[in-house]
Design goal:
alpha+beta, 38% strand, 17% helix, 2 domains, 135 residues, single chain, Immunoglobulin-like
């Protein structure tokens, strides 16, 4: 199939629609997991699991470390906080505002309830969380 083949763009559009539907499902249709009403955005995450640990990478560009809350409760990891608008915005005309700002929250149900927070760092705009088994 060539790039001009309608099946290519139709497939890409279908995948994008599925991702949007999954985001809506995570946000509104999981009892006890729905983010608070004041949440403006949900950061994307990558999750990697080895035999010893679970690593979660959340994209949090421009978020200060002290503005991040991390908790594990009843098998659910919660990462929340606030991304402030940069100081250069104040008094300026905004022509484009694509990077999300304001209150964010992401909840992930963990594979089992034996995980505990090991370490976390903020590297290149990404929060890297390492969870270990509490056995």
């Amino acid at each position: 199939m060539s790039a001009a083949d309608p099946r290519n763009w139709m497939w890409a559009e279908a995948c994008a629609m599925i991702e949007r539907a999954e985001q809506l499902h995570r946000r509104f249709f999981q009892p006890g997991l729905a983010p608070a009403a004041a949440v403006n955005w949900e950061p994307p995450v990558d999750v990697y699991e080895s035999e010893q640990e679970l690593t979660i990478v959340a994209a949090l560009p421009g978020v200060e470390p002290q503005a991040i809350e991390i908790a594990i409760e009843r098998g659910v990891l919660r990462v929340a906080g606030v991304r402030q608008l940069p100081a250069c915005v104040h008094g300026a005309a905004i022509h484009r505002l694509e990077i999300p700002h304001g209150r964010f929250e992401r909840r992930l149900r963990l594979s089992d309830q034996g995980w505990q927070l090991g370490r976390f760092t903020l590297v290149n705009g990404c929060l890297v969380l390492t969870l270990t088994h509490s056995r």
